[in-house]
Amino acid sequence: MTSENVVPETLYAECDGLSIAYQAFGSGAMAALFASTYPDVVERLILYGAVARHTGTDDYPWRPVHEKMAQRLLQMWGKPEALLFFTPSRAQDPAYVEIGLRLMRQTASPNQLRRLIAANAEIDVRAILPQIRRPTLVLHRRGDRAISKENGRYLADHIAESIYLELPGEDHPGWVGDQDAFIDAVVHFAKAPVRAKETAADRYLATVLFTDIVGSTEHAARLGDRAWRDLLQKFHAIGRAQLEALRGREIDTAGDGLFATFDGPARAIRCAAAIGHEAKALGVDVRAGLHTGEVEATGEKVSGLAVHIGARVMAFAEAGEVIVSSTVKDLVASAGITFEERGAHALKGVPGEWRLSRALVN
Description:
Layout: E1 10-15, E2 18-23, H1 28-37, E3 45-48, H2 67-76, H3 80-86, H4 94-107, H5 110-120, E4 136-141, H6 149-158, E5 162-167, H7 179-191, E6 202-213, H8 216-223, H9 225-245, E7 249-252, E8 257-262, H10 265-279, E9 286-298, E10 301-303, H11 305-314, E11 322-325, H12 326-331, E12 337-346, E13 353-361
Parallel strand pairs: 3-4, 4-5, 9-11
Antiparallel strand pairs: 1-2, 6-8, 6-9, 7-8, 9-10, 11-13, 12-13
């Protein structure tokens, strides 16, 4: 699969025509997001050395990347100490050390690594794990020094159709250490029978966007029916143009509102902000609310709790504001979007409290 002197970025296993790809270095969260967003193109998922969240909280205490570790990583990047940390079984091999150090220096400078650590610190995919409905293999090395095995166990505990397998060894990358055990686990999982995919109703992860015109009743009374109808047509044209530009899908435009879905939360936020900006030229203010969650599609319509939450989130937005749920905020990292915390709120008809934030698009 790999030679002794090659450190690949991606590993592939061919199993009876089925290609399984494993992308190294921190892409577990992206793979989980992809599998939940595009279930129709995913037959099964493999997560190796992955995490749901890169920083610790009271309910996620393992801290894969925290301040002390980040500082240590920056200090040893491009030095032999880093190989002892990530690949202890090969840290005394001169040929491997030479290649490993060259790889680190060529792939990221200390400043680039610092930015990557900061971006990763914002990632949190815990909320979407229950939406992964494909067979999943969670692999983790028992003595992994970079990311403890508790992170892998957490993933398996929160993905319904998952198998958790601990492999022996201390190395973090899969291409180092006992590769036979790693390859055997991947091949066995890839060859296993898989159940038929759901067909009655598509269920997938989406970001729902709701917008409406603030003070629409007053605008309609002031303008009169014909002028108000003309303004709504122009407003809907603005919305449709932005949806097309940012790959959103229009679901409904009842009254003065717009309901759309996106397969990416960052684009949904930018779309909401752009609609609000352009609507000002019409003399109206727009408010918007967004949430990311599982939706159920039948035909051209979508439904589900995520839709109701998105509508309730919009109710907390003032004129010109884009308000998002914590799930949206956690999924948007290093996208040029900052957030202003708005605290925890009860959403009408929705269990529990939800942390909301105002999105500020640069």
